Amino acid sequence: MTERGPVVDEQTVDPGGLLADIASGRKDSFAQFYDLTADRVYGTALKVLRDPGFAQDTTQEVFLQVWRDAHRYDPAQGSAWSWVAMLAHRRAVDRVRTESSASQRDRLHAARGHTGVFDHVSEDALDRIERDEVRDKMARLSGPQREAIELAYFGGCTYREVSEALGVALPTVKSRIREGLIRMRGQRV
């Protein structure tokens, strides 16, 4: 078991001074800063993540960032604790977003089932059917509605660009597109 150094608290040590020392590469200052702030960093991460394992990982990432970026700490912007708490909170929120995205991808992949050659063939067939349905519905629109929708959705134009291309007012373009989409949605194939 490793021995920890003397008890460090904010009344005996200046955290801002420790960060300045860390920026100079002083490992002993890093150890003191860690002892001083690790529990609060972990607590901040745990509060956001609600998972002890993720909170531990995030705490480790925060202290790696402290080691690398201590030179970025500016005492004029706030206390050392507020700086490290901000790092912890940002890292924890990033982790939540990453885990949420991964979870969504997993659910989407599971919903699609297994993938294979046959799935690609059926997907291509469904895409072709959808394209044909859209083409049929577009043919039933009025000329101005069809033009506006084609430019906006298939031509990649913004509504303002559609307005300029057709020589009509922007609100008119928006109305044509909205009414055309409503009409398409209500059509049966």
From TrEMBL:
Which CDD domains does the UniProt entry name for this protein?
A: Sigma70_r4
List GO BP terms, alphabetically.
DNA-templated transcription initiation
Q: Does the keyword Coiled coil apply?
A: no
Q: What are the UniProt keywords, alphabetically?
A: DNA-binding, Sigma factor, Transcription, Transcription regulation
Residue span, RNA polymerase sigma factor 70 region 4 type domain: 132-183
Record-level Gene Ontology MF annotations = DNA binding; sigma factor activity
Q: Name one Pfam family in it.
A: Sigma70_r2
InterPro entries in the cross-refs: RNA_pol_sigma-70-like, RNA_pol_sigma-70_dom, RNA_pol_sigma70_r2, RNA_pol_sigma70_r4_t2, RNA_pol_sigma_r2, RNA_pol_sigma_r3/r4-like, WH-like_DNA-bd_sf
- Could you tell me which residue ranges the RNA polymerase sigma-70 region domain spans? 35-100
Indicate whether Ligase appears among the record's keywords. no
Instruction: State the similarity comment.
Output: Belongs to the sigma-70 factor family. ECF subfamily.
Q: Which PANTHER family does this chain map to?
A: ECF RNA POLYMERASE SIGMA FACTOR SIGK, RNA POLYMERASE ECF-TYPE SIGMA FACTO
The protein's name in its UniProt record? ECF RNA polymerase sigma factor SigK
Task: Supply the source organism for this entry.
Answer: Antrihabitans stalagmiti
Q: State the organism's lineage.
A: Bacteria, Bacillati, Actinomycetota, Actinomycetes, Mycobacteriales
Q: Which gene encodes it?
A: sigK
